[in-house]
Automatic annotation (TrEMBL):
It comes from the Bacteria. Residues 4-98 form the HTH arsR-type domain. InterPro entries: ArsR-like_HTH, HTH_ArsR_DNA-bd_dom, HTH_MetalResp_TranReg, WH-like_DNA-bd_sf, WH_DNA-bd_sf. PANTHER family: TRANSCRIPTIONAL REGULATOR, ARSR FAMILY, TRANSCRIPTIONAL REPRESSOR SDPR. Keywords: DNA-binding, Transcription, Transcription regulation. This is Metalloregulator ArsR/SmtB family transcription factor. It comes from Candidatus Akkermansia intestinigallinarum. The keyword Flavoprotein does not apply. GO terms for molecular function: DNA binding; DNA-binding transcription factor activity. The keyword DNA-binding applies. It holds the Pfam family HTH_5.
Amino acid sequence: MANNETRALSRLAGVFKALGHPTRLWIAKRLESGACCVGDIAAATAEGASTISQHLTILKQAGVVESDKQGKNVFYSLRYPCLPWLIRCMEARDGHLSEDPDEARELLSEQLHHLLRLL
């Protein structure tokens, strides 16, 4: 049986589990610039609307995104505005954004300032 601390972290573990797919990570980054609907995301990823809908369902069940129905469309937005920051920091740390260590350090510094603005 898990102790109180690990039980308290189980919700966050679900968030990270839901982000365990490249398309869902991309969606989290995309939603940083504002809410959008399935069609917008599908057009940007060249994936089918049903596939994107399934990804968004997983993200919603984990509490990563929330939805707002407006007419015939459902718009999704991030519940954790720090997620895109976290993803970019991990990309920079792993060198996916830059092979130059100084540039990666600068990117991480920029991301830290961005996170502080979010808080």
